[in-house]
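User: I'm curious whether this sequence folds into something compact or stays loose and floppy. Could you predict its structure so I can see for myself?
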Amino acid sequence: MQKIKSVLKNLGPGLLFASMAIGTSHLVLSTKAGAQYGWLMLIPIILANILKYPFFEFGIRYTNVTNKTLIEGYLNRGKGYLWFYAIITLISTFTILAALYLVTSGLLINLFNLTNTSISLVAFLLFSFISVLLIIGRYTFLEKSLKIVVSILVIALLVTTAVVVFKGKVDEVPNFTPMPFFDNAGILFIIGLVGWMPTAVETSSWLSMWTIEKQKATNKKLDIKEALSEFNLGYIVTAILAIFFMTIGCMSLYGTNTQISANAVGFAEQLINLFTVHIGEWTTIFVATAAFATMFSSCMTAHDAIARVSIDVIEKLTAKPEKTKPKKNSYFALAVLILALINLGVIVFFNSNMGKVVALATFVSFVVAPVVGYMNLKNVMSKDVPKQHQPKKWLQLLTYAGILFLSLFAIYYCYIEIFKN
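Assistant: Here's the prediction. I'll summarize afterward.
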């Protein structure tokens, strides 16, 4: 009991990871996986969570042991590593936030019945509001607010899943034909799902940055066991919730031939109906609010992290040894605002088509995942980390298995794209 209390008290990077991960990959992709392919999608979801675990764990391990971010570790391995990660960050800048804000805007329109309001305008208001919260509140506000949001979400989703399972699976339409699992469309969907399940591998550096911010905010450094326990709790929660979302999609939509909308507002309406059909219309406001809170917290965490990581990458690439390093805090507000403007432009350009933005973000994340995973392994196995704190043999083997798993899918995806075009 004392150990549980200690972990809950020290919630920080693991909590932010859970909040960030329970966004598009869970709310959109896990639900869609169950709705279109049924229980078979449980296999890639579980495999992705297991095989990608080391990549994220290394972000916590490296930073707690060395007091350096993964990004600084990349620089220590060679500037080529850092340039590669800089390119990934640039792509993330134009995709991840736009995808998250699109879904959140659609949920907000549905929640308040703003059907005559442009989704671009709603996204603009969201960008503005969250930017102000991040600039004023910083890390401390982010952590405290998410403890409440994630707690409410977990309880709401647990209850909803239990009720859906208790009521039983929806009736299949006559002559229902399951979607092929191993054709090109099925494989491409798995690539997208695994690419962001539980989230993109490049976000491991976000964990690293949040660990540093947690230490600054509390003026305290956790030992490696406490830090890993806190992260493991957040990781387990994200994996369980992914299965919950997939279960709800499977029990409520699989076998009905329902087409999932690529439009953010249309998907939001389907999502709310999906949750409430088994419980009753009276629950609509509660379910919609919980879903919106989920995406809102994901927007906050991703916006905060990409701003911090972008500043760190630029600083490392441009810093000269003989000059004093710039203070990151002086650039944080500017980075938050620039990200808001860039991603609002992406939303307008894609004409609010969630499918295009999410597909681009997930596929890019999937293709680069094995490379980033290898970079993280190089960091924790380097001389920066003392032998006693380096990952054990089983974790190293799991890392290589994850790299191989992701590499094979990435090669297959590139093969399909080359021959299709």
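Summary: DSSP finds 17 helices and no strands in the chain. The two ends are 58 Å apart (CA to CA).
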